Amino acid sequence: MGESLIVVGRDGCIQTANQAASTLLGYSREELIGRPAAEIAEVLPQHLSSREGVDLLYHHRSGAEIPVLFVASELRIAQGGGGMVWLAQDVTERRRVQLELLLAKEAAEQASRAKSAFLATMSHELRTPLNAILGFTQLMEADAEDQGQESLLADLRKVHRSGDHLLALINDVLDIARIDSGRMELHPEEFDAAEMVQDVVATMEPLARKNGNRIRTACPRMLLFTDRFRLQQSLVNLVGNACKFTQGGTVAIEARPETAGGDSWYTFHVSDTGLGIPLEVQPKLFSEFTQVDSSATRKFGGSGLGLAITRRLCRLMGGDVTLRSEPGAGSTFTIRIPQAVEACVTKG
After folding, report:
1. What domains does the chain contain, in order, with CATH numbers?
2. Which of these, 228, 154, 222, 146, lies nearest to 187 by C-alpha position?
3. Is the Cα dihedral 315, 303, 219, 185 positive or negative?
4. Which of 25, 34, 185, 341 lies in disulfide reach of 226, CB 3.0 to 4.6 Å?
């Protein structure tokens, strides 16, 4: 069906109409001529001022209402004639599609909230017995060491390492679930950035040595007011990835204050001398469950959640994390956050 056209005279009656208007309204063209235009639609003065179209309802012969996109323009004819030209496009199908999309969006959001609530609950339920297993494993390790049972001690340490790895994965899932469900809280505190970076280095030093890497830092002493735990978690994620994907190289952590638009910021650059990240992977690297390649999970471990969590945490703190990488020339991840952030809770 084409665009409906109706010419309304100064007396408010229809002077002529095209076939599209006839089909749309259920009247023959002859039946439309002379009919009061008010029977077709209630057109108010504000409807006549829009040149881009307004939403309006046309009245079908059967009494049904038809949503249309309506535009009116003045018609001038010599000898004092003239009136208005009504142009209308039936948007019934468009409205139906929009409603379906809206309902689908609401259903998807509800399903996402249900999934996040389920993951959060299950993560808590899994952590409780796992923490008990790790605690008893530590006690058994201590007993085995006191009794000189080296073979048993080696097996217990494997159990402990596997438990720690599983606990880290569960914590990642719990963090994603908290953020998705709007229950992730920030707890800002004042702390020295340089001291926090040294804590990150101390945590990551064993992994760096395992792969023959050296961690280099350049971080001036400066006070920040943000969530230290979440910022440190983000840096540990980035430095951990750099140490895992670099062999016999250097991982650098550089930090410096910045001023932009009158606001104070702090940036942390985590660089490595590894293989770099393929260009086709970079746009989706911060998505959940994404790895550099399909073999990365098997070779290096991990859930593919670390970078997704890091980006979400940085944005929660009012900043962001970005990537600059060239295959064969290493990678640099940059965290940029406000020097001070307010306490807040994510919105679900």
Report:
1. 4-90 (3.30.450.20), 97-180 (1.10.287.130), 189-338 (3.30.565.10)
2. 228
3. positive
4. 341
State the maximum Cα–Cα separation within the chain, in Å, rounded to a whole number. 116
Rounded-to-integer distance, Cα 197 and Cα 206, Å: 15
| 138, two tokens | 């530590």
φ, ψ dihedrals at 54, nearest 5°? -130, 155
Q: Which long-range contacts (CB under 8 A, 24 or more apart) does 198-206 make?
A: 199/232, 200/232, 200/235, 200/236, 200/239, 200/253, 201/239, 201/253, 203/236, 204/236, 204/239, 204/240, 204/243, 204/251
pTM of the model: 0.58
How buried is residue 105: exposed, middle or buried, by Cβ count under 10 Å (0-12/13-18/19+)?
A: exposed
Backbone φ and ψ for 306, nearest 5 degrees, come out as: -55, -50
Question: Rounded CA gap, 280 and 275, in Å?
Answer: 15
Residue-wise pLDDT for 206-259, tens only, equals: 889 999 999 999 999 989 999 999 999 999 999 999 998 899 999 999 999 988
CB 237 within 8 A of CB 321: no
Question: Which residues are paired to 224 by β-bridges?
Answer: 191
Quick check: 40 and 123 in contact, CB under 8 A? no
Q: Is 145 exposed, middle or buried (0-12, 13-18, 19+ CB in 10 A)?
A: middle
* Residue carrying structure tokens 């881009």: 52
